[in-house]
Specification:
The chain is mainly alpha-helical and 68 residues long. It has one domain (2-67). Helix content is 76%, strand content 0%. The protein is globular and about 40 Å long. The termini are far apart. 0% of the residues are buried.
Length: 68
C-alpha cells in the first residue's frame, strides 16, 4: 500500500504521525483509527488537518505569486 502513496501523501502521513507521537508505532493506521473514535483526539486530528491544508494552500499561493 505504501508504494501507491504519492510524495505529498507520504509527507502528510509522516507529519501527522510525528505530530501525534506515533512514529514507530506498530500499526499507525490502527492507532489513528482508535484515536479518531475519541472526541478530544478527533477534534485535535481535525484541527491538525485544517492547519496542514491551510499551510499547503499558502505555499501554493506563494508559488503561484512568484511564478506570475
Amino acid at each position: 500500500m505504501n508504494a501507491l502513496l504519492t510524495f505529498s501523501e507520504k509527507y502528510y502521513t509522516v507529519e501527522l504521525t510525528a505530530y501525534f507521537g506515533l512514529i514507530g508505532a506498530t500499526n499507525e493506521c490502527q492507532v489513528l483509527e482508535t484515536a479518531w473514535k475519541d472526541p478530544y483526539n478527533r477534534r485535535e486530528i481535525e484541527e491538525f488537518i485544517k492547519a496542514w491544508l491551510k499551510r499547503k494552500r499558502k505555499k501554493r499561493e506563494a508559488a503561484i505569486t512568484e511564478f506570475v
